[in-house]
Amino acid sequence: MNKSLVIVFLSILTVNGFSQTSKTNEQAKIIIPFHLFDGFILIDAEINELKGKFLLDTASPFDFFLNHEKIPLDTTNIIGEGAAGSGQKIVVHKSNEHLSIKIEGFSDTIIKNENIHTKLNFVAEFIGLNIIGFVGYGFLKDYEFSINYDKQILTLQRIDEKGNTLRSEQTTFLGKKTTIDFQNNNEINIPEVVVQICGQNIPAFFDTGSQGGIRISERQKDSLLLKNCINETKGIHYGIKKDSITTIQFHNISIQENNFGRLNNLLLTKGDSQLTLGYSFLKNYISVWNYKKKTIQLIETNK
């Protein structure tokens, strides 16, 4: 399941007054275990004692984007509309219930009085678990956070206004480190870079809510095939079998003059050039994200 089958936040109408989080937790370093489902990061949590899972999605602009099909929330106030890639209409609501959110690894409770929400049961039905919402940029921006897919651990470290962590709580990772500088000038603050593939520059986004995908025109695809820059496979993507599915494998990609070698299992869609660097790319590294410094460190590990 590619990100486009979950929700396309870029298609939502501009929403003013993004949800704000009241954090009672002052831990300098927080370690959160997570589960993986086909590359999606799922975190154990509960809202007003209702247990479920959050999906960690760096492409969501909100702190918490809640599922009001699981959590009783007022749907009177509509603040935007959009669509999922699989066709579901997305209507975004804002309401003011008092919510207590507990996340595994947090010592205290997060209190919210302003909530952004929609229907997300189609995501829950695909994954087969009780999805109570997404955790996104609005929450993660206050931390330097690292994702270790091998150990299934998300580590959050509180940062100051310049993006620096407390020295006493700094985490050291062994392995070759590559630092990528990104821009996030788009409306929803997704980290954006330019990737070089066979002499072509393609805009790319880092997104934990995606397994990885590539959007190019038929002409671009044919040109890359002719140059032997890519392979294509028909019919399957992360366990989903459909004749209409095509996946792409790049023989070599580079970012800011750093060579990252092959990139496999990208779901192909047609349109203007755009690469999504999701699970298929990020799983190969420990990634350390810092929105204030606008950097992502990629650390190679010896598996």
Q: What is the total tally of β strands?
A: 23
The portion of residues forming beta strands comes to over 45%
The CATH level-2 architecture of the largest domain is identified as: Beta Barrel
Helicity level: under 10%
The major beta sheet can be summarized as: 10 strands, mixed
SSE sequence, one letter per element: EEEEEEEEEEHEHEEEEEEHEEEEHEE
Intertermini distance: 26 Å
Poorly predicted parts: 1-19
Mean pLDDT: 87
Shape: globular
Instruction: State Rg.
Output: 19 Å
The total number of structural domains is 2
Number of helices: 4
What is the third-level CATH name, the topology of the largest domain? Cathepsin D, subunit A, domain 1
Assembly classification: single chain
CATH hierarchy, class of the largest domain: Mainly Beta
CATH superfamily of the largest domain: Acid Proteases
Structural class, please?
Answer: mainly beta
Q: Would you write up a description of this structure?
A:
This protein is mainly beta and 303 residues long. It has two domains: 3-158, Acid Proteases (Cathepsin D, subunit A, domain 1, Beta Barrel); 181-300, Cathepsin D, subunit A, domain 1 (Beta Barrel). Helices cover 8% and strands 48% of the residues. It contains four helices and 23 strands. The strands form three sheets. Strands 2, 3, 4, 5, 6, 7, 8, 9, 10 and 11 form a ten-stranded mixed β-sheet that branches. A six-stranded antiparallel β-sheet has the order 1-13-12-22-23-14, with no helix packed on it. A six-stranded mixed β-barrel has the order 15-16-21-17-20-19. β12 (143-148) and β13 form a beta hairpin. The chain is globular. Residues 1-19 have low confidence and may be disordered.
